[in-house]
Amino acid sequence: MTAAPRPIAPGSADGHRRGRLFSYRHQFEVEAPLAAVAGFHARSESMGAITPPGIVVRVHQAPPILGEGDEMRFTLRLGGVLPVRWVARISDVSDSGFVDTQLQGPFDFWRHEHRFVAEGPHRTRVYDHVEARLRRHWLWTAVGLAMWMGMPLLFAYRAFITRRLLRGRTA
Predict the structure, then answer these.
(1) Helices and strands in the chain, H and E counts
(2) Distances (CA, A) of 7 to 70, 96, 130, 136
(3) Is the CB of residue 88 less than 8 Å from the CB of residue 76?
(4) For 69-103, what is each residue's pLDDT tens digit?
(5) Taking CA 58 as the corner, what is the angle to CA 102 and CA 64, rounded to the nearest 5 degrees?
(6) Is residue 133 domain-resident?
(7) pLDDT value at position 84?
(8) pTM of the entire predicted model
(9) Which pLDDT score, from 0 to 100, does residue 80 have?
(10) What are the C-alpha distances in Å from 136 to residues 13, 19, 108?
(11) Which of 60, 138, 145, 154 has the smallest count of CB within 10 Å of its CB?
């Protein structure tokens, strides 16, 4: 199930500048056990595997397995041309998910919660919840809006590839 991007309460108390806070939710099922899904998402190399064509990802710095407090530095090339540098910190790490929060990048605020719920011994539901606030700069507002409007396609692709890569895994 995919929900359209929608703005929620402007100026929330998250400590960032006022402005519209956008929220996006997506969920899908994978025919793989919880441990396999969580392990796949914990590997920094998985980011490139689930990124759709048209966006090139280059990870500059990240541990092979992401853990509490780790940082991931990468560049996204949108349309293969526009470089967008990003630094994310990993937090709230558990067997059932984690959160990545943008420290530097195109948004004023970005928080992506990844949660995994076992629906049976060989089936896992993946929940994504992203909250973001656009930067107040003409270029970054335009880039952020373009990225935000692409969220349904991005997450549909991620679901398709994750299912394909993990189907039938046992651990």
Answers:
(1) 4, 8
(2) 29, 27, 11, 16
(3) no
(4) 999 999 999 877 889 999 999 999 999 999 999 99
(5) 75
(6) yes
(7) 94
(8) 0.87
(9) 73
(10) 18, 9, 8
(11) 138
- Whole-angstrom Cα distance, residue 149 to residue 26? 14
Extended strands (E) in the chain: 6-8, 21-30, 55-61, 71-78, 82-94, 97-104, 107-120, 123-134
Q: What's the token pair of residue 22?
A: 């956008």
Pairing, β 6-8 against β 21-30: antiparallel
Residue 111 near residue 101 (C-beta atoms within 8 A) = yes
Q: Is 2 a member of any domain?
A: no
Q: How far is CA 129 from CA 3, 26, 71, 108, 151, in A?
A: 10, 7, 19, 17, 11
**pLDDT(136) > 50:** yes
Give the span between the Cα atoms of 37 and 17, in whole angstroms. 35
pLDDT at 60: 96
Which residue is associated with the tokens 């392990």? 39
Q: Is 9 inside a domain boundary?
A: no
